Amino acid sequence: MTSLLIRGSRLFDGTGAAERPADVLLVKGVIAAVAAPGTLSRVAADRVVDADGLALAPGFIDAHSHADSAPFLPGIDASKISQGVTTEVVGNCGFSLAPHPADRSSEIQEMCGRLFPSLPYDWNTTAELYERTDQAGYTVNTVPLVGHHTLRAAVMGIDDRAPYPAETAGMSAHLRAAISAGAFGLSSGLIYAPGVFATVDELAALAAGLPAGGVYATHLRGEGPRLLDGVAEAIAVAERVGCRLQVSHLKAAGKDAWGSVVPAMELMDLAWERGVEVHHDVYPYEANSTMLMSCLPPWFQDGGHEATVRRLRDPSALARAEDELARDDGTWENWVGGSGWPNVMIASTANHEFEGLTLDRVAELRGTTPFQALVDVLVANDLRATMSVFAMCEEDVEAVLRHPRALVGSDGLPPGQGGRPHPRLYGTFTRVLARHVREKHTLSLPEAIAKMTSRTAKVFGIEERGVVRTGAAADLVLFDPDRVQDRATFLEPTRVSEGIEMVLVGGVVGWERGEATGVRAGRRLRPGTEPAGTGGETAAG
């Protein structure tokens, strides 16, 4: 099928403009015409879809995802396309699957193995990784970043020290190679090892190698009591080198920090006035999700996987860590201190035990303390476990979402892990439409769509997407604004949303009537303007 005509839609073009009635013609993966209803009635299209008053919008763009490994799944990854997403930005929080040099293979695989499922790792360079994922195919389009953790591990392992000049040069060389291969920018995750060991000087030295328009996306060093310091550090990096700054999943974690998102955004506004292109993304939930290992202090991970596992069996190291969790002195991102054991829920484990239970409940079942339950779960799963932490408040979520430079990002962890992943993986975009547009009126529908489409496209330099206009890519979602609803919950997190009637990626139908069509019509996008047409279809394996 090379052409498709959508008739009688309520068009939201992605710019924030009011809706208007329109017919839209797609030809060979490109929007060929946008016209008043009936104007295209004589066009002979391969397929005609009667929208019957449904909303038609650009496909949503997930500004922050961890679906780097999705191409390696045996089937279609329905998590994003089922909620209307047609493009996602991967390689976030410092984690990417390349570079992967042979001499650092074990360290990189152990580090990434805490987040990603088992992978072949039959690549060394970023270019080779992209060749592999291109061959496998993409359910939706992907915008890849290269991760600082992976760059650091590829050159100097997981050690808690500053890099030598030759090591900084080595990281910069890997970054240049990734940019040359098609990466859109650099990401960091400054609460995780080894990124937590980096300084502003190290991060700025790397970000200085980004090309014009390149993005530095950062998981801040502090999202709780140190939120303002974390924002200031991120701004300092971007201001020093003149790159675009994307603050990842802006939040105030822990009751003592609630309300601090407002002064944090004021800092970003001041930076914007000074010329720093700074945006942030947000997901519409009061819980975050990350690796369970993150409950322990940063020093616990110095030296990498084997050193961490040894400490989990070292009584003196455990006593020190337990004391630091309880004292919560504010010098590191202490999820337990900020939210409490009853608010830390195990999401997934390698052995699938205790999924969906909080750590205090696991302690009750095992007749031990919550801290010992944490240690036991990490040891039993060789550190491969994730958690959801109920750490935020709704008022902060709404404030962050309303900001004019807010984008929407799921922060969804890699699909295909099983367990009980955070429901944001399957529900972020439909939750914005249902809860924050239809129910709470946090945003108008045109404004919400703009935050999920054209504004994200502009930040990442993919402006041939995110809009409905002649010549743009035919990435589209047809949905019912009165019925759209997220259905994923913390106990049933993979339930697909309602009200998403059709999703087209490059003019190819990838989702229809509540089911994936089984076609991988996405592509890996390239920095700079590119032809909008489809990159081809790949059947699901």
Explain what the structure shows.
It is a single chain. This protein has 541 residues and is of the alpha/beta class. The protein is 31% helix and 20% strand. The chain is built from 17 helices and 23 strands. It has helices at residues 78-81, 105-113, 126-136, 148-156, 165-181, 200-207, 227-241, 261-273, 305-311, 315-327, 335-339, 359-366, 370-380, 394-402, 424-439, 445-451, 454-459; strands at residues 3-11, 20-27, 30-35, 47-50, 55-58, 60-62, 85-90, 141-144, 146-147, 185-189, 215-219, 244-247, 278-282, 287-291, 344-349, 385-390, 406-408, 476-479, 500-505, 508-512, 515-516, 519-520, 538-539. Strands 1, 2, 3, 4, 5, 18, 19, 20 and 21 form a 9-stranded mixed beta sheet that branches. It has a 6-stranded parallel beta sheet with strand order 9-10-11-12-13-17. Strands 6-7-8 form a 3-stranded parallel beta sheet. 56% of the residues are buried.
